[in-house]
Amino acid sequence: MHDNQSLFDAIQIKSSATDAIATRARRQVLAMSLVALAQGVPFYQGADDLLRSKDMDNNAFNSGDWFNKIDFSGTGNNWGIGLPVANQNQAQWPVMQPLLANTALKPSSQEISSATQEFQQFLRIRYSTGLFRMATFAEVQANLSFLNTGPNQIPGLIVMRLDDHGHDYGGGIHHVVVFFNATNAAVTFTNASLQGMNLQLDPLETASSDATLRQSKFERKEGTATIPALTTAVFVDYQE
Prior knowledge:
The protein has helices at 7-14, 21-36, 64-68, 93-101, 109-126, 137-143, 203-206; strands at residues 144-146, 157-163, 175-181, 187-190, 200-201, 217-219, 224-227, 231-237. By secondary structure, it is an alpha+beta fold. The protein folds into 2 domains: 7-126, no CATH class; 130-237, Golgi alpha-mannosidase II (Immunoglobulin-like). The protein has a 5-stranded antiparallel sheet with strand order 1-2-3-8-5. Strands 4-7-6 form a 3-stranded antiparallel sheet, with no helix packed on it. Strand 6 (217-219) and strand 7 (224-227) form a beta hairpin. Helix 1 packs across helix 2. It starts with 6 loop residues before the first helix and ends with a strand.
């Protein structure tokens, strides 16, 4: 894919100057999770899971392999190899140049590997229950709802709830609540509709190598969840 900047490049240019590369990579994983756990057919630009960079090229159609290549080895991501071609990019060179010259913004092979593993983890979660892959508009309308809405909503937090309403979607899961915390701080969210639910962190996330993610908690008495910064936490309930 050549149109527009890659997800990694868009995050690089939009993040705060003080954000470390680990924070930026975590932001990309969260962005990919939004697509992985949404209804419909997920679509990604090639090698998003490898933190692919085109050095902020806005349209790499005629930029050749130098900017379009993908490093499938996971040892690099093509960041910092030079300013993208002038056509459609020159006006942004003053912004791009200092970013591309900053070696601290180049992800390590470990950060690339972690992003890949977490991306694959979300795909496994997607296929753990058909609640993430409902076949009809009517099913989505009946079984999908959002809780953090209205004038008192917490900015930067999406709370998505899925309920099977007696239909068997597989995996033995009857309820799913997903918290997408896109903010730079932990958030605590309480909703009366969650009180008494036996929500537990998805087993795939419990086994995750992401120690920050594993800090996600749910307290059933009050219906309160605590989600770390830049984290997508998937809670499931096996009870009807």
